[in-house]
Amino acid sequence: MSEVQRPEQTQYVALQCPSCGSVFRARAWKEGMSCPKCRAGGLRPLPAPGGAVDYVLADRSHGTTAADVVFAEWAKWCGYITANQYNSAVHRQNSELQAGGKARPIHEVMVSLGHMNEEKANGLLGFLAQRRPDSNDEDFVSRVLRQGGVDKQEVQRICGLQREMAGKRNEVSPIGQLLVQNRIIPEARMLELLQEQAKDGTGSLRMALAMSQPAFRESAVGSLTRQVTGSPHVVRNAIVLSAAFLAVFAVWAWALHEPQATAYGRCATCNTWVAVPWTAAGWPARCPRCGTKGVMFAVMCPRGHVFLRDSPFGHEACPECRSDFGRPLTREEFLQASRESRPSGMRGPAAVSPRAERTPASSSAR
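The structure corresponding to this sequence follows.
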């Protein structure tokens, strides 16, 4: 029996109100629809590159979102960006917000920094918007279980989570990414299995590359160059040009270098609030004070309660109001939380500093 069932995934469209500027998603659009917020008519579809509706509508009022991380990780796994470019893009995205501007989607930041071109970015968004679970997920789960060394019940639990997400979201991550985010398998093992699938002509990595890379078309100049590459003069000139290009690139990279992005949390061992370098994996992080891997990721729910999760991708609900939405803390919120009195540290989700109830802020994208 197949480990991955494939229910029909809900498809959405992004809409925007021309009167109040609100954006939201709906199952369909038709002429004359009214805004549910201001009741004005004239709702119009909002462009969603690649059909990635949830990605476009992600609330970036507080910086990087989970949708941005999903895109950035696949850009890295496809070989389009390096780990340093990943971190510099996240830092630039949050720096724009802190400077009083608006945080752009991470793919726009990467394109503006020259990390990747718009064609690859849009193709990758189209890949992330594909209907899931799919046959690639089914094959990946079969390979994971056949390889062994994992808890079969935990794998099945994540498969169930993926199916549940498919009924609520427009974009659902491939099963391999969900297994890594929930720490069922390490990232290195996921990449090994994705590459193994690609060699067999299947898999999510092969699909991502196929959808984000244009078909090769050799130009007349390229054809001529290929025919004469045996000439010593051509080889020599190519070496000189390559060396010059690398020198220019090194100067450019040094000029654009930015410090690593920061994540905020609290150590469950020494009960200290700390700022640690941002990473998509390796949680709980290592505490710079006591040296243990006990730093939990701090998030804030829509009602302003600050609580802890095992990682940025945890699904633990707020212990105060049971909301399952949480966004990362800003620097100001981190400083305020670190000054307030807090209960003793604990592992897992924990209430840190219940705030006075206020108008709920919009949370991270579903």
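The chain has 13 helices and nine strands.
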